[in-house]
């Protein structure tokens, strides 16, 4: 006599009631896909914030007081901008107590990006002699400083090493491309030396139809690294007190603002996910109660044929696991696809940094989502399975007729 396997019997039962099985699969898929997509999205923002803040390297950003909003927008969403202040600000800032290192930068918004007009490039010029944000990357990856019209580009710009880029009538040579950070300030920027930027501005008067007026007395910002025994907030206050007309933005302030936004977003997503989970749990539980009531005669016959209580219990749980795994995998595939499809739109509307988590983290999240879907199915079917296993064979057959 051929022995019947519990898993095979469970699969046949699910196929027999295809519509009901499909509805249960859809419930699991919606909850699993929503939770996974939300988790990956939030993880990506946190990932970008962590890597981008590390790459920035500065504890305090000093900018003209009237351009504070522009500077924050440039850091968080990479919006190209141009604003300037006198170089004397840098000379003052670097001598303030608590400042370990300071370095000036220039922010220049190009009229257009000749390669692709749908990409907004941001020109950032730094001082190689004092810089501590871009120079470490150069030392690690290029093993040499930028010279003349050499530039390095962010990962989101559609250019390759060896390409040439014209800005304001000057041709620049791409000598390297940075790895992704998720922050457009880095990923969509073109980095050059301040000498090259000043030369470009001077030459633009004769070489460009849209000249720019920037002389060597102008800078846009001062990047500040504070001493170990000082906090960025404290040094920022000292700078604003000592230098007129500037705003000192602590990196912690920018990060904490983003984290507050993420916290609010996370609460909303978790609230919706929890509501969906409770609804699906109740609906699945009700569906399994219906399944058990409809199949009383079948379950009674199985018991009469020698099936043990534990086997009846396992049969219902097997059906729940099959639904959970199949629905979970479908939900993961759809949820991940929708996230990739609408990621750019969401990032643009939220104006927050984003960097997709690494492959290892994604695999962990996927396994976590599958485990979550299995637990959901098991919880929903636990009481119906226990009820089915307690049925007496004769009573179950009589009620099922």
UniProtKB/TrEMBL annotation:
<keyword id="KW-1003">Cell membrane</keyword>
<dbReference type="GO" id="GO:0005886">
    <property type="term" value="C:plasma membrane"/>
</dbReference>
<keyword id="KW-0812">Transmembrane</keyword>
<keyword id="KW-0472">Membrane</keyword>
<feature type="domain" description="ABC3 transporter permease C-terminal">
    <location>
        <begin position="272"/>
        <end position="393"/>
    </location>
</feature>
<keyword id="KW-1133">Transmembrane helix</keyword>
<feature type="transmembrane region" description="Helical">
    <location>
        <begin position="269"/>
        <end position="292"/>
    </location>
</feature>
<dbReference type="Pfam" id="PF02687">
    <property type="entry name" value="FtsX"/>
</dbReference>
<dbReference type="InterPro" id="IPR003838">
    <property type="entry name" value="ABC3_permease_C"/>
</dbReference>
<feature type="transmembrane region" description="Helical">
    <location>
        <begin position="361"/>
        <end position="383"/>
    </location>
</feature>
<dbReference type="InterPro" id="IPR051125">
    <property type="entry name" value="ABC-4/HrtB_transporter"/>
</dbReference>
<protein>
    <recommendedName>
        <fullName>ABC3 transporter permease C-terminal domain-containing protein</fullName>
    </recommendedName>
</protein>
<feature type="transmembrane region" description="Helical">
    <location>
        <begin position="312"/>
        <end position="341"/>
    </location>
</feature>
């Amino acid at each position: 006599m051929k022995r019947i396997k519990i898993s095979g019997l469970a699969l046949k039962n699910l196929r027999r009631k295809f519509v009901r099985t499909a509805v249960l699969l859809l419930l699991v898929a919606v909850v699993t896909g929503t939770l996974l997509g939300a988790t990956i999205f939030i993880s990506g923002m946190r990932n970008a914030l962590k890597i981008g803040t590390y790459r920035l390297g500065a504890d305090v950003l000093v900018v003209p007081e009237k351009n504070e909003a522009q500077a924050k927008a440039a850091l968080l969403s990479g919006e190209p901008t141009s604003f300037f202040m006198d170089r004397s600000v840098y000379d003052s800032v670097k001598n303030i107590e608590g400042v370990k290192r300071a370095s000036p930068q220039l922010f220049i918004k190009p009229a257009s990006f000749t390669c692709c007009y749908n990409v907004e490039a941001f020109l950032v010029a730094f001082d190689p002699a004092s810089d501590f944000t871009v120079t470490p990357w150069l030392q690690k990856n290029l093993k040499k400083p930028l010279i003349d019209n050499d530039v390095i580009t962010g990962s989101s710009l559609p250019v390759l090493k060896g390409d040439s880029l014209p800005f304001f009538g000057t041709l620049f040579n791409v000598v390297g491309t940075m790895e992704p950070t998720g922050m457009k300030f880095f990923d969509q920027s073109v980095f050059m030396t301040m000498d090259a930027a000043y030369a470009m501005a001077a030459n633009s008067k004769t070489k460009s139809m849209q000249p720019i007026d920037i002389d060597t007395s102008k800078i846009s910002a001062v990047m500040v690294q504070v001493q170990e025994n000082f906090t960025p907030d404290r040094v920022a206050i000292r700078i604003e007190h000592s230098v007129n007309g500037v705003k000192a933005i602590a990196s912690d302030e920018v990060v904490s603002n983003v984290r507050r936004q993420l916290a609010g977003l996370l609460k909303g997503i978790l609230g919706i996910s929890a509501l969906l989970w409770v609804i699906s749990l109740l609906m699945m539980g009700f569906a399994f109660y219906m399944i058990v009531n409809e199949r009383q005669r079948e379950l009674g016959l199985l018991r009469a044929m020698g099936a043990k209580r534990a086997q009846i219990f396992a049969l219902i749980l097997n059906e729940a696991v099959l639904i959970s795994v199949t629905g979970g995998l479908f939900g993961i595939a759809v949820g991940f696809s929708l996230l990739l499809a609408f990621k750019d739109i969401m990032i643009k509307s939220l104006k927050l940094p984003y960097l997709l988590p690494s492959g290892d983290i994604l695999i962990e999240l996927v396994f976590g989502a599958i485990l979550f879907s299995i637990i959901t199915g098991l919880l929903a079917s636990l009481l119906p399975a226990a009820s089915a296993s307690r049925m007496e064979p004769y009573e179950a057959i009589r009620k099922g007729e």
